[in-house]
Structure formats: structure tokens, C-alpha cells
Backbone:
């Protein structure tokens, strides 16, 4: 357990680091040369970055982040970013309202009791408590009537959460609806994906099969189809070609520069063709790459043709002449058997995972199950190493097992620092390795859109961190720290539920301080780094100085990419879970959580407005995910409370029993009422008026993998005149004049019959 | 425990009863006067019943039931009846294939072992075994390698079930699709129900609100809407009016008869106006009823008008111009919030539960939960009385508690009869009281179609019978019968899982004989009564002789009604569950189950073809229900086996562990692949060609509650000329000529572009 001094040190040091980093940011972000690092989003949007001559105080960014409206955020950073920031807003609201009750009422109640003193005097128990433990529920004596206040706290916490979550869900749905019914229609709104197409009848091509099916089922709205084909070598060749082009440009730039300097015809750049240009014969780069391009281009085109014809899969993309029609088709069951003709709303073109499109129905079912099993085991059995980490990295144990450390450790300052950080650092390092694995697992499920992949991985990660960091550390940490608890467990024979709850309860409040430092570290240092972007900055300057020759290369070095939802969302959710779990038992955690999400809100808004550029939009599909995870957190916290109250021998603990059930009920209701509007676009929304309709050809082009988009095909698409599409648009008015409002211009006013 | 002699008696007596009843049927069904009882379906279909002069052997009905094809059954008795009979077919297949392994292999293995003997010799155990127990798994010695065969039996059973269930599900879906794409379109195929309509804006009527919304969302296919109104007094008044009319007809008929007999102007019938005509002043019936009618008719009409205008609810029925359009609308999410504008496919008009149409979204959610909780408690806490019944009604106990019975009981014949029947009768009587309660509960959930109501009630009933009859009897029966088992339980302190499994396992094989008699009784006597229809027959003749005067009255006395799915399906499913549970442990049950479902198959087919007339069609929606319940049965049986194998101390019992998980996986896959086609009509099916299209007016009329269908309204509907509808039909070809196949006549051939 962390001693008070260690606790303070940890806080102070983290805070100092934070201040320093913010200062660095305030200073560096003003310098002209760094603009691409601190305002890339603005640059890419073609808007002018802040004038470096205008003095920007360290508070300017805060002011700007604070003043931006949500619509601006959606406008600039996209719906998903806005949703992500809503996570912070929600957490802030929940924690704030909880604090209103817990801080002023529960802390005094705890502080004025004396359970810990009594415990400490008790010779049997080897209990040692810090002053921090005295303002937690642990300091309330068993069966004390003061526990009533904490019980009320539990209810307060739950209902605050329900209320805020409901409010936010509604708000988010409205944001989404606004985005969906946007007058600037997006290509995916006219598109559906078709999976599990049955084998073609003989003497019939895929196209014919698909077209005839959908022409019959959606006679008036179906436009055309595009069969999904395997990429085969195409993607590889395309990549090679791209690099070749880049290298050529680079080489030419080098030549140019050399000209300007020395001899006016300059020195032609050379390079070795072996790996990393380390060995092999030396060649003239420009000629070499020119040849490479000449050689690759035809190859690629040929490969593209081949895959188009030979690698057709049992999946297709179908296009409709109105948003409404596509929205309808995406919700409908087309074949009586679900394992044929599955039509689903299309994700953003950029987000399609092409190699998963043709995974067959049954494969998906099985893969899913298998992945779940694997995930389950990952989550459960990582617990042991983490437990060990938590155990060994408490300084006591370290010196116990590695006596030679004593000498170092005896330096008090150092001691407390190590004591404060060792465990957290161990954990953080460990967790950093996870996301890749989970992404791979999720992809194996056969998911077909990037955003869904990320969500799936986040879900797995969340359960992982909650189970291991939160539960794992609490329980194992205790086990290894107090021998008698191990005795307790072994004496109880089986790893029975009650003993675990008991133990868990018993070990909660001491761990509170641990988690507080955990939170503090994460937010001070984490956000400090996030804001100052030191790493990208350094990389940028190094590359720019030594590597980059062409404009494109420079751009690539500062290309910001999008928010890293995968590690951040589960971690933020973990913090919420921890906070909810300790809000009542050790209310001291609340102000730190408040700080975490407060600063987070500012920093992430700043990043959303100025730094990150979304790679694709999921239409805010992250919210149901976040919503239910927060509820899981609440559920965990309610169970925790049940455990701890029964440890406290509180006779009225049964009064807490309804809470978990309430949570389940609430989750269920939200799922029924709100979730569907994230699965599908409501017809009423989809049939609202559109102004700018993309041409069919542009929509088709959008849904072609880049490496298949060769010049010829582009021409094909251009040649394919947009008449049908224009028709679809043009002859709708004529219909509506005959008393039928057209889907596309379906005016809100009732049609003129 | 049932002694062998009692067992034999039970079988013999049941069988005799069965034979007698079949004879009665064969004899009575030939007599002309009974035709309305034995061939009502044929009469109502207007087809000629079998000529009584043609001699029908007792086997004729079997021949006919055997020879009828499934299509004939669907044609004559409707899809639901065919589905119900599929339950028997499936059970037969499963049980037959299981028998193929269990009877020839497991029984000999058990018979040649001698565990029971050893047990009986053991002085400590007060075990007594019958010769029946010797051919059950109980007779295998612990840890014996013979158990391997039984383990394989477990796997055989499971995979047979999976295979057959999958096969049947596919078959049923094809039946349903055939029915859905029938060229004779049904009114409900053009109709959807709308619930949770948001409150109207001011200065706008419900009609305007609904029409404007759907005209905008389904501009080309939406026809008209009909707001659901509360029935208020209308239904009551209507009922009174009907009775009045009937009474009048009756009285006139009486007068006629009296004329023909005595004085040519006859004696006018009189009756007292008090309750049941027992007291009050005497009046001339004809005049009295004439006045009543005169008085009621205007009242009703006025009430109808009132409800039409004043009792409008937040629900409506909407009509489309094509099956495809309605199928589409029924699957789509219309509002971004699920608690508004819920559009669902319409059930058959006759099946709509009008008073549930307007139950609000949140009310439904809450009601559902509440009902579930109530059901749960009903299921669990009925266990106690049933346990007591099972305990007291074993003769041993009876004499123990009521010594005076000894004298009677000592008569051996009587003794064994009582011994055989007491428990079963007690149970059967007890269970007969349940359905009403469950129906009421289900209705409280806010379900809006009769068929769904019945299904919901059946589901509850199934869990009830499995939990109470099967588990309840097995466990409690044992508890009360052997004192040491009670000791066992109490000594174990808590009602822990292991002890229960142990107990359960230990008490299984003895109970097998009990359940065999249970099955035998149910099928011999049950089907005997079902076939011979003695009760309806007697009632019919009595009423006809003494009460009925008019043709209508006579008809009412023999009106057959539809299959009583509510008590029968859960009971049949219970038999399946029991059979699956005992198939391996006491294979002797298999032949009886085979007989049960074999005879059941014949009898129910006969009833379907000749007797029952469906009140409404659910489109075979009963199958998913049956399917999943059979799987639950399999699951229970797998758990049971696990328990019993561990009682047998079989070291390789772990090999059975995968089975329950396999079952869950299988259930999950079926739910994903097949279930959706029962929730919705596939668009491909709905857009197949229709020949006979009902007129809009007739569709609207069909969806008006009878008690609101007064003459005026009928005229209104007639007046409302079908032009729009005809238009919708007529101007579709013109479209399709412009290259777009129309939804309604959407020819299967690809459109002529």
C-alpha cells in the first residue's frame, strides 16, 4: 500500500511534469516552424493557422478550446470526435453531481470516526493505515449507523448516472440525425453491401445474377451493382508503384538541389539496389526508378483486369437512386434464409475492410465464437502475470526478493518516488502491448468496417483492463501483501465467492490511494505529452532536416492521423469505472477524476479542433458502445459496494441489492429505445430533402479500392454517363406532380394530392 | 417408487381404456346423427361428409390420416395445424433414431450387470429395486467401463436431435414461404400496425398526422390509415344486441313449433325477465326481444360514432397498395427514436387484440418485466405444493398419514390401481387449472395478436411443467420417499448445487417408471378421449334435444373451434423433454414415447383434417417456439446426464461437458439463420406475383372490430370506391413498361430494360 508521503510525492512530481509540458507547448506552439505539428488540421482544411506574430498567452488555447461550440467541433473534426468529447462531458457531469453529495457529507463522516485507530491498536491484525485511509469508508466502524449515509450515496451515484446517460444518449442521437439528414448527401447513403450471395446459376455472370435479383426486388430504386473482387497482387503492385514514384520525385529533387549548389548540371543521385541500399550494384536512381515505373504500370493494370474478372467473390456493393431507398434496403430481409443475400447499410468507403467482405455467413458465426473464447482466456489468464507485477513491484516485496536493492532504496526521496511509480509504470508498459493483438482478433471475426473493428477491439480491451487492472490488482495486490489473507483464502478451501468478496471488500480502501496515483499519473503526464506532442515534433524536425526533399515527403512527416480511440477510450472508461467504484468507498478519488476529465475535455477539444484529422466517419456509432461500458462500470461499482458493505457487517446491506437489477433494467430499456437508431437510419430521416447529390459515377468510384482505381477504370466510370442517375433525379418531380412525393426530394410538407 | 405390478396394471388399464374409446369412436363416427361432431370441418368447408351407408372399418380413419399429404393438411387445416403436426413428426424422427442406438445396445448392457443386487444386499442402504430398474443405467456398477456406451449414447442423442431439428426448420420455412407467396393475397399482407404515435400537433387530427407522415415516407405505396379507437361500451352493447336477436329467433321458432302441433296460432312463448328467467314479471318473449333490439340498435350506433371520434388512441392501422410495400414498411425503423412510430407487420385481422394496441412503449417494457418476475415466482413456488402432492399420494405415505385407508388399500387389485394412478391424476388435475392464469399474464404484457398470446402462454407453461413436473417431482419425490436423502440434504447444510445434482442423479432411474406411466396414461386416455370426442358428443346431443330450436343454435352446439394449442403443446414438449432426459438413463421410456407421438400423429392429423377449424392463422410462427423448447429439453437432458454420470463416479464424465455448450451454439446459429424469416416476410417472397388482390375497402373492413362494423360504416366503405386501389394496380404495368417491374406484378423474370 502506498504511504502518504509517497502519495504526495507522486502527485507533486506528476503535476510538475504536467506544468513543464504545458509550458513547452505554450512556447513551442507559437514558433512558425512548428505550425504543421500544432495546427495540422487547420492547414489541411486550407484555413490559415494563427499568425505567429500575434502574441498567444499560454491560456489562448484553453480559451479557444472552451469557446468552440459543439456544432463547430462536428463541422471541423467530424461527428466521431464530437462523440468522443461527449464521453468527457458525460463523465464530468456524472462525477460532478456525485461529488456534490459524497465530498461534503461522506468525507467528514469518515474523518470523524476512528475504526482505523482501533484496528491499528488490535495486536492480532497487522494493519497499518495512512492518513488517507482515515477519510475513506474504511474508517467507519462496523455496523455504525453512519453507513446509512454511504448507502444513500450508492443510490445517489446510481441515479445520477442513469439520468445523465439518458440525457446524453438523446443528445447524441439528435447529433447523429442532424448529420444523417445533412443536405450534403454522402456516397455511402446511396449504397448497401450485399454478402452471402448464393452461387450463380450456370450461364449467368455474377453481375447478371445480382442485377436481376435486385431489379426484381427494388425495381424503381436500384441503380447498379459492383461485384467485390479479391485484390490479389494488385495492392502489393500498387504500393510498389507508389514508392517508386515517391523515390523518383525524391531523386529528382536531390538532383535539383545539387544543381543549385555546385556544378549547374549537378550530380545525379545514385543508390545501391540491395536491401536498405547497403550492398548490391550502384545505379543511377532517376533512371532506375523510371524503369521500375515503366515496368510496374502495365503489370498492375493487367493484375487489375485479372482480379476484376477472375477473383469475383460472393459479395457485392449495390447503388440506389435515393438515400431513402438505400436506407430501406439496408434494413430489409431479402431472402427467407438469413444465410443468403444479406444486405447491410454501407460504411464510409474509406472504412470498408475489403478482405473481410466475402467471409461467408457460417464462417463468421464460427469465427466470432472462437474469437470470443480466445478473448475470454486472454482476459482471464493475463490476470496472473499482472497479479505478480502488482505484487512484486511493491517496494516491500522487491527488497524482500532482491535484497541488493536495499542500498538504493534507503535513500528516502528516491524510495518514495520508486514506491509511487513502480507499479503503475509496470502496468502501463504492460498494457501498451495489447491493442495490436485485440485488433487482429477483431479482424479475424470477419468485421467489414474499420470503425467497427476499432469498436470491437475497444470492447475487448475494456473488459481486459477492468478485469485485470481493477479487479486483478485489487485482489492479487491484497493477496500478496498480507499473508493472513492468503491463509484466509486457503483455509476457506475452495476459491469460494464469499471469501473473494470479503477479501475484495477488505482490500478496497487501501488500494484507493493506489488508484488515485494511477489516475493522477495518467492524466498529468498523459495529457501533458498529448498536448505538447513532443514525440511527433522531434520526429518531424529530424526527418525534415535530414530526409525530406519533396513537399509531399514533408507533408507525410506531419500528417496528424486521427484520434487514437483504441487505447484511449477503454482507458478513459477504466478511469470512470474505478471512479464509480470508489466514489462512495473513498470519495477522495472524485476530485482527481474531475481533474482528469476536465483537463481531458480541454486537451481533446484542442486536439480535435487543431490537430487530428479523421480517417473515416462511423456516424457516431461509438456512443452505444461507450454508454453500455459506463453502465458496466456502474454495475461493477454496485457489486463492489455490496461486497464492502457486507464486510462492514452493515445489517441493511440488502437495501443495495435492487441497484444492480435497476442497472440491468436501465441498460435493457436504453438498448430497446435508443440503440436501433444507431444500427439503421430512420426512414423519416433518410427521406428528408437533399440538395447536393453525388453523381452515380462518383459514388461507384468512391467504393472502389484505391489499388483497383486505374486510369482506364476511371474513364469507364466517366464514360458511363450519369443519365440514369440524373433521370432518377429528374423524373421524380414529374411523379410528385402526379401526387406522389419523390423519395429524393420528399418534401416535408404533405404532397399535393 | 412404482412397483412392477402397479406399472403393468397402469399400462394394461390405460390400454384397455384406449381400445374401448377407439371402438366407441369407430362405432359412433359411422352414425349419421354424429356427423357434425366427427366431421365438422368437412361440413363447414361445404364438402360432403363420408356417406354413412358406405361401411367404414375401424381402420378407415387411420388410412385416411396416413394417406393425406402435407399440402392437403395445409390446404384444409391451415399452416398452423400443419406446423403442429410437424412437432409430432420431428419428435418421432428424433426418438426413432435415438432408439436405434439405445434399445439394442444400452438395455442389454444394463440387464447383464448387477449393481442393484449389490445395493439391495447392502444393509445400510434401504434400497428396493423393481425388475424395471434392472434394465436402466442404475444397474450399471460405479466406474464400470460399460458407462462408455451410455456416454456415446449421450452424444448420439444430441447429434440426432441437432440434425433432425435443422432439417425440420428448413422444411417449415419453405412451407411458410410457399404460404406467404401464395397467389391469393391475404388482407394482412397489405397492412401494417403503427404503435406509439406521438401526440398530434395542435389543429391537426390523428388522421392528418398519420397520413402526412406516411405519405412523406412511403409516397408511392401508402394508401390510407385507420386510427385505432377504444371499443368503450360498443362491444358490450353489440353482444347484448346479438343475444337479443338470437333469443328472438329462438322464441319465434318455439312459436312456430307450437303452431304446428296444437292450436294453429300456437302459444306465444313467455319468460320471466329476472336473472336466469327465475323471477320477475312474466313477459311475451317475442315482443320483449323485439323491443330490446329496437332499443339497443340506435344505442350501439351512437356508441360506435362516439368511440370513432372521441376514443381515438395513439395507434393506427395503415394500408399499402402492394404486399411488397407492406412487407418493407413492417421491417423498417421509421423514427430515430424507437419509442415513436413503431410500425410492425399486421397479424391476421381476426387475431388482433384490440385493447392492447394502444399500450404505450414504456408501459410495455415495464409490464413485460413485471410479468416475467411474476411468472418466475409462479414457476418456482408452485414447486412446493406439487412436491407435497407427489409425496403424499404415494400409497405408502397415504396410509402412513391416513391409517383408516389401510382397510381399503389391502384389497390388492384396488391397491395397485390406486398406486398407479393417484399421483398422476393429482398432477393432471392440478395442471389443468394453469393455462387461464398464464394467458391472463401474457395478455398483461401488452401483446397484440392472439397467436402471440397463445405462444407466450405456452412458453410460460412449458417452463412451468418442466420445472415442476419433471424436476420438481424427481427431486421432491425422492426427498419425501427416502429419509436418508433428507438427512443428506440437511447435513450438507445449504441447499448446495452438488448435493442437489447428487440427489437428482440418485433419484432419476427409479422415477423413470413413474414418468413412463405418466406418459402412458397421457397418451392412451388422452388420445382416446381426443379421438372419440365423447364430451362434445354428449353435450351436442343433449343441447340439440332439449335447448336448440333454430338452425343457428344447433350449429353453435357442434362448432368445433380450433386446436387447443395452449395445453397440448407444452405437454407434448414436456413428454419430449422427459424422453430426452431418460433416453440414455432408462431407455425403456423410448418405445412408450414412440407410441405416444405415433398415435398422436395419427389422431391429430385426423382431427386436423376432419374436426378442428382454425380461428386464425399465425403463419406458422409456432415453429421457432417449438424448436427452441425442444433444444431446452435437450439441454436439460444433457445436464441430467452430467449429474447422473458423476453420481456413477464415471471418471470420463468430463467428456460430456462440451454437449451443453454445443446445444447453446446450435440454438444461437439457428436463431441467427432461420428465426428472422419468421419475424418478417422476405422482400423477395413478398414481391412475387399476385393474382387475386383484395380490394382496399375489403381490407379495411377486415381490420375493423366486428362490434364497430355497423351497416352505415359498411356503406361508407362500399361508397369509398376502390379507384385508388385499382389505380395502384392498373398504373403499375405502365411503369413496368418504362423498364421498371412493378412491385405488385413484379414478374420473376428480369424486367425488360
Residues:
Amino acid at each position: 500500500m502506498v504511504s502518504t508521503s509517497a502519495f504526495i510525492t507522486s502527485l507533486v512530481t506528476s503535476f510538475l511534469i504536467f506544468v513543464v509540458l504545458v509550458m513547452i507547448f505554450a512556447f513551442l506552439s507559437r514558433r512558425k516552424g512548428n505550425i504543421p505539428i500544432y495546427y495540422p488540421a487547420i492547414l489541411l482544411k486550407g484555413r490559415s493557422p494563427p499568425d505567429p506574430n500575434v502574441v498567444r498567452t499560454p491560456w489562448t488555447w484553453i480559451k479557444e478550446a472552451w469557446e468552440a461550440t459543439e456544432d463547430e467541433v462536428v463541422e471541423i473534426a467530424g461527428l466521431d470526435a464530437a462523440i468522443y468529447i461527449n464521453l468527457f462531458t458525460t463523465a464530468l457531469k456524472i462525477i460532478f453531481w456525485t461529488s456534490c453529495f459524497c465530498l461534503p457529507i461522506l468525507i467528514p463522516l469518515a474523518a470523524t470516526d476512528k475504526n482505523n485507530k482501533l484496528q491499528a491498536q488490535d495486536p492480532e491484525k497487522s494493519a497499518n493505515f495512512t492518513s488517507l485511509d482515515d477519510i475513506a469508508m474504511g474508517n467507519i466502524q462496523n455496523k455504525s449507523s453512519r453507513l446509512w449515509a454511504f448507502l444513500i450515496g450508492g443510490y445517489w451515484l446510481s441515479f445520477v448516472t442513469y439520468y445523465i446517460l439518458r440525457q446524453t444518449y438523446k443528445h447524441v442521437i439528435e447529433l447523429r440525425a442532424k448529420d444523417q439528414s445533412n443536405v450534403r448527401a454522402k456516397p455511402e447513403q446511396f449504397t448497401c453491401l450485399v454478402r452471402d450471395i448464393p452461387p450463380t446459376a450456370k450461364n449467368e455472370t455474377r453481375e447478371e445474377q445480382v442485377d436481376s435479383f435486385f431489379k426484381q426486388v427494388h425495381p424503381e430504386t436500384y441503380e447498379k451493382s459492383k461485384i467485390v473482387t479479391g485484390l490479389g497482387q494488385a495492392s502489393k503492385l500498387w504500393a510498389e508503384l507508389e514508392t517508386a514514384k515517391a523515390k523518383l520525385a525524391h531523386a529528382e529533387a536531390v538532383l535539383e538541389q545539387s544543381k543549385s549548389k555546385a556544378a549547374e548540371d549537378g550530380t545525379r543521385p545514385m543508390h545501391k539496389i540491395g536491401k536498405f541500399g547497403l550492398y548490391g550494384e550502384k545505379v543511377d536512381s532517376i533512371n532506375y526508378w523510371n524503369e521500375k515505373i515503366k515496368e510496374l504500370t502495365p503489370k498492375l493494370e493487367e493484375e487489375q483486369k485479372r482480379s476484376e474478372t477472375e477473383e469475383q467473390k460472393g459479395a457485392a456493393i449495390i447503388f440506389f437512386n435515393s438515400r431513402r431507398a438505400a436506407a430501406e434496403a439496408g434494413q430489409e430481409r431479402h431472402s427467407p434464409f438469413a444465410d443468403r443475400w444479406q444486405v447491410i447499410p454501407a460504411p464510409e468507403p474509406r472504412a470498408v475492410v475489403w478482405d473481410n467482405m466475402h467471409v461467408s455467413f457460417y464462417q463468421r458465426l464460427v469465427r466470432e465464437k472462437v474469437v470470443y473464447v480466445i478473448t475470454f482466456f486472454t482476459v482471464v489468464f493475463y490476470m496472473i502475470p499482472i497479479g505478480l507485477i502488482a505484487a512484486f513491484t511493491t517496494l516491500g516485496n522487491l527488497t524482500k526478493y532482491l535484497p541488493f536493492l536495499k542500498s538504493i532504496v534507503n535513500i528516502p526521496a528516491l524510495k518514495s518516488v520508486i514506491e509511487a511509480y513502480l507499479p503503475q509504470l509496470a502496468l502501463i508498459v504492460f498494457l501498451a502491448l495489447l491493442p495490436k493483438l485485440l485488433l487482429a482478433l477483431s479482424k479475424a471475426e470477419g468485421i467489414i468496417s474499420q470503425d467497427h473493428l476499432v469498436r470491437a477491439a475497444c470492447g475487448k480491451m475494456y473488459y481486459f483492463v477492468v478485469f485485470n487492472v481493477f479487479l486483478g490488482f485489487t485482489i492479487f495486490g491484497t493477496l500478496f501483501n498480507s499473508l493472513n489473507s492468503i491463509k484466509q483464502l486457503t483455509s476457506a478451501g475452495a476459491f469460494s465467492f464469499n471469501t473473494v468478496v470479503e477479501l475484495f471488500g477488505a482490500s478496497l480502501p487501501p488500494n484507493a490511494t493506489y488508484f488515485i496515483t494511477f489516475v493522477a499519473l495518467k492524466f498529468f503526464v498523459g495529457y501533458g505529452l498529448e498536448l505538447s506532442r513532443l514525440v511527433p515534433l522531434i520526429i518531424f524536425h529530424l526527418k525534415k532536416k535530414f530526409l525530406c526533399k519533396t513537399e509531399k515527403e514533408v507533408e507525410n512527416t506531419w500528417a496528424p492521423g486521427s484520434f487514437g480511440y483504441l487505447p484511449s477510450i477503454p482507458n478513459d472508461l477504466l478511469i470512470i469505472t474505478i471512479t464509480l467504484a470508489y466514489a462512495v468507498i473513498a470519495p477522495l478519488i472524485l476530485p482527481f477524476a474531475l481533474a482528469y476529465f476536465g483537463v481531458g475535455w480541454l486537451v481533446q477539444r484542442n486536439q480535435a479542433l487543431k490537430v487530428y484529422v479523421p480517417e473515416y466517419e462511423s456516424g457516431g456509432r461509438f456512443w452505444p458502445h461507450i454508454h453500455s461500458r459506463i453502465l458496466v462500470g456502474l454495475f461493477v461499482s454496485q457489486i463492489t459496494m455490496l461486497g464492502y458493505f457486507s464486510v462492514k457487517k452493515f445489517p441493511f446491506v440488502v437495501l443495495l441489492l435492487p441497484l444492480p437489477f435497476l442497472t440491468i433494467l436501465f441498460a435493457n430499456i436504453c438498448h430497446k429505445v435508443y440503440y436501433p437508431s444507431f444500427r439503421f437510419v430512420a426512414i423519416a430521416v433518410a427521406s428528408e430533402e437533399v440538395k447536393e447529390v453525388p453523381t452515380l459515377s462518383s459514388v461507384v468510384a468512391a467504393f472502389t479500392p484505391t489499388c483497383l482505381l486505374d486510369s482506364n477504370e476511371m474513364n469507364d466510370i466517366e464514360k458511363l454517363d450519369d443519365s440514369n442517375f440524373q433521370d432518377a433525379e429528374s423524373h421524380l418531380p414529374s411523379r410528385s406532380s402526379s401526387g406522389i412525393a419523390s423519395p429524393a426530394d420528399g418534401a416535408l410538407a404533405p404532397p399535393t394530392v
